[in-house]
């Protein structure tokens, strides 16, 4: 009898100890789940919503946002956790973009499509400024997602503490994502934007006396530690700039994606501007920092998704929970084309998304008649 009572008391004590453990303390700290996160990029769409070349008046297979939308929807079905970003040069570049500018009361269908897709954030490109700040501000108000840029400022002061950024420098997205154990966990994703400073020269007629800039690297070095202090688990840079700086930029080493890759604290770089594709085996690297096979720049996973909706950029992360913080364990970058000749499954091109076509068709038809 004494033996049975001893066993009963031991079990009772153990159960009491377990029930008294606060949620999220010792028992939780021994649990180290992993999580898969996919981030996706469009860039340099230039208002080519339909797969249509306005100059020739012909449909095409190799570009068009209506095709990229199909890739986005398919890529989302492959992962529990996804985020979607755009890297600028959105509202200008095609006859459709010009038509909407000439009829300023019209909402921009490309932004309407992006709102339906629930984009998480975007960065402005240099061509966003071609029609002036007034028009840009009106169009960005249509977006249901935040725009970020950390190196453009309202002109008039000279320090980060005093200067007023023209956009929000960064945003920290609070998401509840599903880990490999099937449970949901809070994750903080920091998103920071950059732009080639040559925009101030190219659109001087609109921007002179209104905006000033700092280098991309200087802005990154200032804001990224702040983002970490505010709890960002993962930091994604949206850079509307090329691997190398533009020719007209004086401080080249601090205004390129190569320069940005050397700033501590960045977990991924999504870039655009030069209409190239990365990773790509065709890329020639003289810096020694680029691994096209791994899709990294100076060890940082990176992606560039071409132009006009020709590709979707994807970076897949594996994250691990370490002392209450999610950290990147590994990553893989890829670009998915909407068309590749002589490739099984892509020789005919990706099918257009019907809903995106529907949202753009009326203005597309008016644009063709207007021409």
Number of helices: 11
Q: Percent of residues in helical segments?
A: 25-40%
Low-confidence segments:
9-29
**CATH homologous superfamily identity:** Metallo-dependent phosphatases
SS-derived structural category: alpha/beta
Quickly count the domains.
1
Span between termini: 98 Å
What summary fits the major beta sheet?
A: 8 strands, mixed
Count of DSSP strands? 19
Radius of gyration: 24 Å
Using the 3D structure, state the CATH architecture: 4-Layer Sandwich
User: CATH top level?
Assistant: Alpha Beta
GO biological process, one term: nucleotide catabolic process
Catalytic activity: a ribonucleoside 3'-phosphate + H2O = a ribonucleoside + phosphate; a nucleoside 2',3'-cyclic phosphate + H2O = a nucleoside 3'-phosphate + H(+)
Pfam family, one: Metallophos
Organism: Bacillus infantis NRRL B-14911
Explained architecture:
The chain is of the alpha/beta class. Helix content is 28%, strand content 27%. The protein is globular and about 60 Å long. Strands 9, 10, 12, 13, 14, 15, 16 and 17 form an 8-stranded mixed sheet that branches. A 6-stranded mixed sheet has the order 6-5-4-1-18-19. It has one domain: Metallo-dependent phosphatases (Purple Acid Phosphatase, chain A, domain 2, 4-Layer Sandwich). The chain has 11 helices and 19 strands.
Map the helices and strands:
Blueprint: H1 2-20, H2 26-29, E1 34-42, E2 52-53, E3 58-59, H3 65-77, E4 82-86, H4 95-102, H5 109-117, E5 121-123, H6 133-141, E6 147-148, E7 152-154, E8 164-165, E9 170-178, E10 184-195, H7 199-202, H8 204-207, E11 211-213, H9 216-229, E12 234-240, H10 257-260, E13 268-271, E14 277-278, E15 290-291, E16 296-297, E17 300-305, E18 311-322, E19 325-337, H11 354-370
Helix pairs in contact: 4-11, 5-11
